[in-house]
Amino acid sequence: MNVSQPSPQGTGETGATSEFLVEARGIVKRFGDFTANDHVDLAIRPGEIHALLGENGAGKSTLVKMIYGSLQPTEGRFFWHGEPVTIADPGTARRLGIGMVFQHFSLFEALSVTENIALALTGDHDMKALGERIARVSRDYGLPLEPRATVADLSVGERQRIEIVRCLLQEPRLLIMDEPTAVLTPQEADQLFLTLERLASEGCAVLYISHRLEEVKRLCHASTILRHGKVVARVDPSLETAASLARLMVGAEIHSIRPKQPRTGGPTRLYCDNLDLAANGPFAVALAAVTLEVRAGEILAIAGVAGNGQSELFDALSGERRVDRPGAVVIEGTPCGHLGVTARRALGAAFVPEERLGHGAVPAFRLSENVILTRDTLVSDAMRRIAGFLDFRRAGKTAARVAQTFDVRKGKPDPEARSLSGGNLQKFVVGRELDRKPLVLVVNQPTWGVDAGAAALIRQALVDLAGEGAGVLMISQDLDEIFEIAHRIAVISRGHLSPGYDAHVMSLEKIGLLMGGAHGGPAHVDEAVKLREHDGHAP
Amino acid sequence: MRLELEKRPERSKIMAVVSPIAAVVATLLTGAVIFAAIGIPPLKGLWVFFLEPFSSLWSIEELVVKATPLILIGIGLSIAYRANVWNIGAEGQLTAGALAGSLVPIFANSWQSPLTLVAMLALGVLGGMLWGLIPALLKIKSGANEILVSLMLVYVAQLLLDWLVRGPWRDPHGYNFPKSVSFDGWQTMPTIGDGRLNWGILFALVAAVALAVLLRRTMKGFEIRVLGEAPRAGRFAGFSSDRMVVFAFLVSGGLAGLAGVIELTSTVGQLQPNISPGYGFTAIIVAFLGRLDPIGVIVAALMLAVSYLGGEAAQVALGLSDKAARVFQGVLLFWVLACDTLILYRLRFVPGLPAGETAR
């Protein structure tokens, strides 16, 4: 095999042992007529950080689910230290020493962090001691967690930490990470890389799935690239460029985004005036005097670490949570703080929430039905309008149009939303809103967990929308994305929003400091550094 | 080799149809085994229990009469459960509807016109709605659990009925029996033919079709389904969970009230301490057997009505205990739930040793 050899480990070739910790040989997985994995070979050495690359639908998730025992291969075998194994279920995988952090978390929202972790461990546990252990491990690895916090009140980023810590407590030999940095700040991602490198140096292998090719280049020792269920290349990512990796994944050049139009200073589309919003849970964030303005033709990005008030701000802007003072939120000149989401849509606003499944779309509904979700004018002719009859044919046509315009890949004409991959569903959810030609678009984490091709398409759509004169407010944790398409950048921290700065005067460092809670202009950065040290934050 | 459940990417359309049929077949086979085990010839047992109810016009009519309240309550509960609103107190709403409907014959006993019946039915619906409104309002105003409140209100309604028929509403000429005056003329439901079959079934069928259309074709039905499947997405669509709680209790309570007053005006004929053999609770099973779909509920209600009649027949012809009906209801529910698994999952055989033995 043509695997690169950056890590020197190898346990010798005597007996049944192998230089590889885990090997997949000739793995085939079929779902009905669809072949998700077609004779895939994969080999990972102990202490190696191995990237698994591929577009959405390339078969990455299917492969790792088989390694983790939640799916069974149709053909082919797995080997653990050279011995053939059947990984019958996740319990078997855990006993072998395989831990996995999923892209979609499997946590019980009503339970605390400690309780969730205890559920994944075998045997009885003293909850108090376990809580202390969680606090210690999470602190050691730079993934701070409050063991008693209820999961429902935690942000996506914090929920991911639970999953990671849960794996770390089991002292895994192989850690599988599915899109781990999608929800982290640069600083948090750096900390995670340190964690992973430390684990690797301790001999733990890491199978790392990511679309962020720069971080793969930087972190990973080896890579296997899948396209349409087949292995198309095995390369050492550090010897490649992001562009060459992308070409291998997609099989063609990724379109670079056409440059954004300069800001024109058109009319104000969305205005927020000293918006206050009380926290609606013990761990939720209160919004304090949030003021922002989005004008026609511009993209205002709101950067920030997960759980600093982004979802609250989104809810307040969309009208899912209302405020008493109408003037706190103004859409197209109409004060609407007291109005609900339907009234705000009628003013020309459109919204794309962070969570695709269960918020932006109903998982068990077909795409055509999900079209109706944000377009309740889809009632047929006037007579029927009175009785509220829905026009499913028109909904179906809209769904088909959105799917075509936004290249939503699906197995059948009108599938259930949950059967789409993350990237395809996100393209659909964004496309559904853009299909209405909104004047104002508020979008939260537009490309979270989305492959490079889909992300580029979505970003291009946002740029084009602004170019056509709409105002776009993009809440995002992906700083590359923000710098790529935003005209102005504001940072949210603990429910406070910084003023918006022109993108070209902002730097990663300044954003990082504002994320840490420094407010006022960039001139206050020195003060901010002191503040942060005082606060006990790692720089 | 071992058997494994594998999640399907989507619900299987074929299994959605095959599953209930498979469940009925499996129930019959299980029934045959049970009969054989207690020394009854299986075919004779099955005949008495499941087929005799269909063998005479009389028993088919009786089947429909028994299914009527189950359909009315079952479709209402289906709407509520679809919307994720857990009304467990249909029996209480049924009782409240019967009480409200009785206001007419008790306080305006001499009023006899078709409008008398209309007024009684309307009051019945209203009574059930009001009784359902109590848990709904407590839920949205103070967060009280609607399961507990609606269930406890069943006993309040039954005790109220008990007090009324023993006290103020007792028939003065009734020799102190705990019964109200007997209803007659337009205070009772006209029959179809000369048996026990009455207009009630028509109300039930019309209501089922109306709710099926509502659920499938209208914005309100869409709202019900969205809020039940994904409340967060429902809020995103601009729907209100609170308003849905009220709506669901009004619909399910009103239909239970209607079932109560129809029972009262057809088979019971006067107020008495017991007016329902637990239709409000049995309808919960009916709603789930019918897949929370109004048309499915019609079929499910007939199936449970069979088990009631079959149970009575088995007592007479086979000397079985009246608990036999419960056993078959339980077996049926078990198989339906088991077969329903196959809608979202498929079975497959996995070569190799069982889990655990391979880990070493």
UniProtKB/TrEMBL annotation, chain A:
Pfam families: ABC_tran. Residues 22-253, 270-519 form the ABC transporter domain. GO terms for molecular function: ATP binding; ATP hydrolysis activity. Keywords: ATP-binding, Nucleotide-binding. It comes from the Bacteria. InterPro entries: AAA+_ATPase (IPR003593), ABC_carbohydrate_import_ATPase (IPR050107), ABC_transporter-like_ATP-bd (IPR003439), ABC_transporter-like_CS (IPR017871), P-loop_NTPase (IPR027417). Belongs to the ABC transporter superfamily. This is ABC transporter ATP-binding protein.
UniProtKB/TrEMBL annotation, chain B:
GO terms for molecular function: transmembrane transporter activity. It comes from Siculibacillus lacustris. The chain crosses the membrane at residues 21-43, 63-81, 93-111, 117-138, 147-165, 197-215, 244-262, 282-306, 327-347. InterPro entries: ABC_transp_permease (IPR001851). It is a multi-pass membrane protein. CDD domains: TM_PBP1_transp_TpRbsC_like. It is found in: Cell membrane. It comes from the Bacteria. Its main location: membrane. This is ABC transporter permease. One of its GO terms (cellular component) is plasma membrane. Keywords: Cell membrane, Membrane, Transmembrane, Transmembrane helix. Pfam families: BPD_transp_2 (PF02653).
